[in-house]
Amino acid sequence: MVEHNDDGGRPASDGVGGPEAAPPAGGRSGSAPAPPGGDRTGPESAPPGGAGAEEELGATVAALTADDIAPARRRQLLTRLVGQVRGRGLADLFKPRAAVRWMTDAVADVAPHVPIRDLATLRRHFPGLDDEALADRLVRNAARTTAAIGAAGGGVAAVEWAVTPTLLSAPVLLAAETVAVVAVELKLIGELHEVYGAPLPAGGTQRTVAVVQSWASQRGVNPMLPGVGVSAVLGTAARKELRDTLLKRFGRNLTTLGPFLTGAAVASYLNRRATRALGEQLRKDLGRQRRELPGPPPALP
Questions:
Q1: pTM confidence score
Q2: Whose CA is closest to 270, among 181, 161, 173, 164?
Q3: Where are the domains of the chain?
Q4: CA 157 from chain center: how many Å?
Q5: Which residue has the higher pLDDT, 98 or 260?
Q6: How far apart are CA 227 and CA 237, in angstroms?
């Protein structure tokens, strides 16, 4: 099933065209990289550690950011992500602090792989929309995607609990779902910055730090502030802000642990609401920044 927009039934395309359109890791593009290895879905799809595991984790999460994939494929990707999460070692995931520490590291690892389209690509994918209409479309599509991830998590939970009737898998699933939802929102943040004329640094550590800090603070990146995107290091204060925001999100997700698919409806609703609220807050902030930025100097007589 493909989600549709309300403009004549055209699919709500997010520009994800498949493996052949995959950009290099960390670049801005119109397509998300497909997870390597075809349709492998188990923990064996990611080595237990090292750069290869990080690359596969990033590719899986990047694929989950697309909003034009079928529910069955989304469940498959989330199942793969759960396997990759387990492979990274989560013995203390029942302890919220340990879970949030792990998610903080995972978000930092995943962020460079999130595919952010530049403004020209967005214009091609959504022709005929002005800035505000385009921003509205991006927020709506992202909210639908995070809602779909919540629903997919319920499907994965139903399968896992049918095999092992305990909640031992639940924290792992919630951690995986949280990281996937954050990735969708990182993509939204990067693309809203493009729409409002404040593009993030193009690739590398600077872009990663900027988009993660924007998500953690729920604010736009002000290009006029000194030091933004320069000597970018996710320092102690930034990591604490990220951890605090992740803790709130993870705690909210714990409320979705209903039996089988009942939690999926709650997760879907909460994800959609949180993503839409983030998008609207960011639009207000970026719109205000754009109005406050100095205009071009007057032309010489």
A1: 0.72
A2: 181
A3: 50-290
A4: 21
A5: 98
A6: 15
